[in-house]
Structure formats: C-alpha cells, structure tokens
Structure prediction request, 145 residues.
Amino acid sequence: MWNLAWNLHHFGTLETYGEGSRRVDRDGNEYIYQKRRPVRPLPSNVEQARMLTEARAEYPWLAAGAQNVQQQALRDFSQAMRNFYAGTHAYPRRRKRYRNEGFRITGFTIHLDVRRLNRRWGQVRVPKIGWVRFRWTRPVPECRS
Prediction:
C-alpha cells in the first residue's frame, strides 16, 4: 500500500517542468534529470480510503489483505508527506520487500491470540495473515473485548 500511495503522489500530483539535463550517477550510468513540482495536493485520508475500497473491489489480490493494515499504511504515508513538507524529514522513499517491514493493526474488538515463544520472541495471530513472529521488546497491551 505504501508504494501505491507513493506512486499516486509521485506521478499523479507532480508535473515536470524546465529543460531536462543529462547527468551521470556515482556508478557511471547516464540518466536524464528533470525538475518536478506539485500541481495538486495529495488526496486526503478520506479520499484515499474511498479509493482503497474501490481498488479492493476491483483487484482480488488487494482484497485478500486486511483493510485495517492497508489503511494504516496510507495514514503513515500521509504523515511522512506532512513531515517532508514541514521540513523535518526527507522525502519518503519506496519500500523494499523484506527490508524493515512492519505494520500496525488498530481497533481490535476481538481477543488477540498472543504466544510467547521464548524470552525474546513471540507470535500473534493476525486476521487474514495467520501467525506472525515478532521480537518481544515491550509488554503487549491488553485488548478490549
């Protein structure tokens, strides 16, 4: 979801302007650099949630994931863009598979099944995903039933 939101922002809300220039990166590869500027703002969280619902109806691979997790990824990206425009953080980058992966699940009304495997590791059953291992670094909060 993060990468889909990044693509929406990077290619849907920006336009190129000025003359492109030929540059060489540190590995010696040539590329064309063109300046980009924002033309329209990023859709709000409500609009993004509406777009997510439409996309989940259209694509079964997207509907197979938990909607709560996908909405949290959109909220995280919106916060990253606000931090960038405030000048406190760098421009968000695309996420890579198996690199610093993580997710947040909020608003549970059911009891979570959490097991402690040993002193440092535990696992939790996440809806639509199954058992997920995590490093136990702090107490797990109790869920409201």
